[in-house]
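On clarity, I found the account of how folds are encoded harder to follow than it need be. What matters is that the chain and its backbone geometry are given together, residue for residue. For the editor and my fellow referees, an illustration may be useful. For illustration, here is how one protein appears when written out as sequence plus structure tokens:

___
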Amino acid sequence: MIKCRVNGKLLADWKQFHDFFEKTFAFPGYYGRNMDAWNDCMSDYCYENGLVSLHIDNASELKALNSEAFNALVECSAFINWRSTEEGGDPLIVLSYYV
């Protein structure tokens, strides 16, 4: 399992959000910096590298500063897990946070 911890304050705007994931998970140069592209790149990363545990510190700050990004992260992580399990696989992302 790959463990990643991030301070939610560092994801406070969309640029910071996409910068973090692009760099941390080595997304390809064609990464579109939107949540559809995030789903695809994060799924590919997990399929290649295994289960990812993503822990968000200060999640309440992220939710207050950029609730759209917070909600998208929760929904897209759930979608990636749903898609994988729907295909007979295991969940790919463990998302933990406290708000």
The two ends are 24 Å apart (CA to CA). The beta strands are 2-7, 52-57, 93-97. The chain has a mean pLDDT of 97. Residues 1 and 51 are 5 Å apart (CA to CA).
